[in-house]
Amino acid sequence: MNEKFPMTAEGLKMLKEELENLKNSERPNIIKAIAEAREHGDLSENAEYHAARERQSFIEGRIAELENKVTRADVIDPSKLDNSKVTFGATVVVTDLETEAKNTFKIVGADEADIEKNLISVSAPLCRAMINKKVDDVFEVQTPKGLKEYQINSIDFI
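RESULT FIELD:
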């Protein structure tokens, strides 16, 4: 399973920073917390110990996941892409044809997605519907509220 994870350079930097924090700060802190909880005696009834072990398990799992993603990251340089159509890394302005509302979205990897910052995953339904479309193209997306139509206003690689 050598699937690559497409992401921006900023997304890779974010993952590496989280990984470094987990390895250099969180992991040593949790090991210390487990050692302190052990000193409190009977481990079978020691809630602090069990909570610390659970946290350690989570941290180790997240470290393994991040190391895997960093190793398999496929950093996409948007400046080298065809900006005549919607692709990974594009910042796209679309108009909802029903409400006339305009929205701007940047297409990023799954680990970078944050709808509050208008960063949408390349695998999101809205994104999948607009991939390879050009300016002025109209596309449809099935939403929980039914079928919606959008028109692409602009495509930029910022």
